[in-house]
Amino acid sequence: MNKSAKVKNKTFPEFQNQFYLPKFWGIWLGVGLLRLLAFVPFSWKFGLGKFLGKTLYIVSTKRRRLVLANLALCFPEKNQNELHELLKQHFDSLGIALMEMTIVWWGDHKKNHENAFERSIVKFTGEQNLRHAQAQGNGVLILAPHFTTLELTGLFVSFLTNYHAVYRPHDNPLMDYIIAKGRSIQFSNGEHVEPVSNANTRLMLKVLRAGKSMTFLPDQRYRSKGHVTVPFFGVMSKSNPATSKISKMTGCAVVPTFTRRLENHQYEVEFLPALDNFPSGDDYQDTLRLHQLYEAEIRRNPSQYLWVHNRWNLKEY
Description:
Layout: H1 25-37, H2 42-59, H3 61-74, H4 80-106, E1 122-125, H5 127-135, E2 140-143, H6 150-158, E3 163-167, H7 173-183, E4 185-186, E5 192-193, E6 196-197, H8 201-209, E7 213-216, E8 228-232, E9 235-239, H9 242-250, E10 253-261, E11 267-271, H10 283-300
Parallel strand pairs: 1-11, 2-7, 2-10, 3-6, 3-7
Antiparallel strand pairs: 4-5, 8-9, 10-11
């Protein structure tokens, strides 16, 4: 097999004339506002992001209740004051994530990937773990759980390697087009790589079997056929065993990857060693092992995990 062959993405969303219709104007307005925020100097983005987060905290009452319920479920040892402080920190993180989205969609890297400004704000830890996994030639699944730094993770990884990002298509076709286009990357060697729909299993397998790298985010709730119910923060959770299945079908290495937003407007991306004895042949044990990795990182950096997702299928909050 030709490991260097370009993998075609025939399912990438295309622009449609219907996007000009009035029913999409609200989306265009929101995107236009984000585009204006992209011009804000980088040194202001954290402060403005926290302001946006505090605004979301005030207006998003339902999401605020969900986040608090998730936090109380996962951190029973914390008292109410500690939980509410963490709640506020999380909404600050959500606001900053909006500003980070403007960096990914319209940042310096779009025109100047080789010498992009964004390279100066990130440091990499464990890069040798990624390189070693890639050197095996069987493809690499870069496992990146849903933290609020999600958008930047893909950009930062692109500074080290060409890769394909797996994403969940948006239900709205215009949003799907905008998100997919925003996450597309023009690499320094001229290769243009587009994100891959998580429904396109055939293309995902093709990418890995070609010896390429792919980011994957399997930590959210999964209720479809084939799910496994595994503890996550001590609570039984319907989960996606796809990481084990993909690794088994392709022989790819699995490299857990965590991005952290630091206090000084800097970021850290850490690549852990590729998982040994993975898959083990037991989807339950494999998923439990992954959950334990995620949980350790979330406990280290709790405010930056994506708590607005109803991961534990809470009925009331």
